[in-house]
Amino acid sequence: MNNYQMYIDGKFCEAEGGARTESINPATEERIASFPRAGVSDLERAITAARRAYDEGDWPKFSTFERGQYLIRIAHLIRESAYDLSRIETADTGKTSKQTTFIDIPVAANSFEYFAGAAVEVKGETLNIPAPALSYTLREPVGVVGAITPWNYPFLMAAWKIASSIILGNTVVFKPSREASLSCLELAKILERAELPKGVVNIVTGEGAVLGEALASSMDVDMLTFTGSTEVGRSVMRAAASNLKRLTLELGGKSPNIVLADCDLETAANGSLCAIFMNQGQMCVAGSRLIVEEKIYDKFLELLVAKTKKLKIGDPADPATDIGPLITEKQKKRVLDYISIGKKEARLVVGGGVPAGLNKGYFVEPAIFADVRNDSRIAQEEIFGPVLCVLKAKDADEAVRIANDTDYGLAGMLWTKDLARATSIARSLRCGTVWVNTFGGFYNEAPFGGYKQSGFGRELGKEGLLEYTQVKHVNVDLTPGGKTLVASWFNV
Ligand code: NAD
User: Where are the beta strands (DSSP E) in 380-454?
Assistant: First the structure.
């Protein structure tokens, strides 16, 4: 068992009182590590350290170029440890090694490197004002940023939030999910090796209801960036009202995936499987509502079912595995409960049970429900597991109506060869990202975030960086002779 420590003010430490949480490998149910279960007093130490690093330290005063040198070093160190990091992420979360090796870890390194350079583009403007004055804006850091993340992409989301906030001069108190803290504590070791000044990033582990709540309501935290469920997002928003913190909320989804009759069937079928079963369906952007045009409905469903039966379920550490376990026993139960609900609401056409021989570990067979009504619970509630709802639409217009008939608005997918029609449908979808003939393209260059109850604010892209800044207007009077209008306002 590896016993991790948390990272506060540049030091690795235990929680006051020494409480610890154990990490369970979801594929084997074995205890693999433990880490501190911090209390509010630990969190307060972290906030004080971040406050000091921001208010008195050099970090916000460094140039973007100087801060960027640290981020580049962090990116190199992540790449040097990539093999170990992906193994740890797989063991802690059940994410397949294919996923952690090719996505989570390298993409995290790329984000540190990318934002090191991209942040030079975050700058103010000279304003064309109707007065003899030099009028310009500055983009300044917000201050101390609290960051809270879920368990489905732990290392990657830590990288996104930490890289984009610190490059602009902010300091951070980061709270990962209790279900997936190990890779984030590995990141703490990398930050130390990169000699990041103390207090710039503090990583505190423990219960969301205790630490998350305290971080969101703290009067000493200037901004909160939260990724997680819509339900918790709502309570975070209430807590953040304490000092009117800047807030970004990246929340849940029930994303539509529209398949039109003129698509390339094979590509659309493979893409649609990826959109729901990758990461065991534990993706905020999962294409969990598949809306298929009537003309190809039966054929497409048949193709999907045949392909789903071929997916290899098992040990996530095996590079050949397609589907690993769910994150926890609680999540397995939640998904199986939804499958029971689905059996009453629609027609289960494949999967949905516990795979034979995999009773140990939190495995659930990928499930497909056909003939789903969009007002059923399985079509409206976020399941966050490998459960696909297939719905029929008579044409593209009806598909778009069904697609938008949800409280969520995170992403949408569309499969068609008619790109003119695709761009028109992309405008009609009420969501923050639309993928046409593809799924899951996240780029450091492109903003990502929600419409409706999927939240607000953006991660990545220029918009994502701007979230971590505030604008200051500076006005320097240049009236010839120095006699400004305000100086003669009162004739005294
Ligand atoms: P969750 O909302 O239960 O937890 C998210 C984080 O909030 C965790 O770190 C948790 O400890 C913390 N937390 C719990 N209670 C809190 C409270 N009262 N105050 C403050 N923080 C608290 O979500 P989860 O189960 O970890 O993750 C799954 C959810 O995350 C899904 O709804 C998924 O759609 C969403 N998600 C969204 C995105 C996105 O970018 N939009 C990305 C990934 C996951």
Answer: 387-393, 408-409, 411-415, 433-436, 451-452
Q: Which two tokens stand for residue 168?
A: 């602009």
Rounded distance from Cα 247 to ligand 1 centre (Å): 15
Helices and strands (H, E) in the chain, number of each type: 16, 22
Q: Which CATH number fits domain 256-436: 3.30.450.20, 3.40.50.2300, 3.40.47.40, 3.40.309.10?
A: 3.40.309.10
Which pair of structure tokens corresponds to residue 399?
């598909």
Q: Which atom of ligand 1 is nearest to the CA of 179?
A: 26
CATH number of 2-251+454-474: 3.40.605.10
User: Residues with Cβ within 6 A of ligand 1?
Assistant: 148-152, 175, 177-178, 208-209, 212-213, 216, 227-229, 232, 235-236, 250-253, 284, 382, 384, 410, 450, 454
- Answer whether 478's CB lies under 8 Å from 132's CB: yes
Contacts of 209 by beta carbon, 8 Å cutoff, 6+ apart: none
Residue 24, Cα to own-chain centre: how many angstroms?
A: 22
The domain locations on the chain are 2-251+454-474, 256-436
Of ligand 1's listed atoms, the one at least distance from the Cα of 151 is 26
Measured CA angle at 220 (ends 219, 221), to 5 deg: 95
Work out whether strand 223-227 and strand 144-148 pair parallel, antiparallel, or are unpaired: parallel
User: Cα(232) to centroid of ligand 1, in Å?
Assistant: 6
| CA 391–ligand 1 middle distance (angstroms) | 28
The pLDDT tens digits along the chain (492 residues) read: 799 999 999 999 999 999 999 999 999 999 999 999 999 999 999 999 999 999 999 999 999 999 999 999 999 999 999 999 999 999 999 999 999 999 999 999 999 999 999 999 999 999 999 999 999 999 999 999 999 999 999 999 999 999 999 999 999 999 999 999 999 999 999 999 999 999 999 999 999 999 999 999 999 999 999 999 999 999 999 999 999 999 999 999 999 999 999 999 999 999 999 999 999 999 999 999 999 999 999 999 999 999 999 999 999 999 999 999 999 999 999 999 999 999 999 999 999 999 999 989 999 999 999 999 999 999 999 999 999 999 999 999 999 999 999 999 999 999 999 999 999 999 999 999 999 999 999 999 999 999 999 999 999 999 999 999 999 999 999 999 888 888 888 988
Whose tokens are 């948390």? That residue is 6
CB-CB contact of 21 with 51 (8 Å): no
| Nearest-angstrom CA–CA distance, 44 and 28 | 36
Separation of alpha carbons 150 and 197, rounded Å: 26
Which residue lies with its CA nearest to atom 12 of ligand 1? 208
Q: Which atom of ligand 1 is nearest to the CA of 382?
A: 32
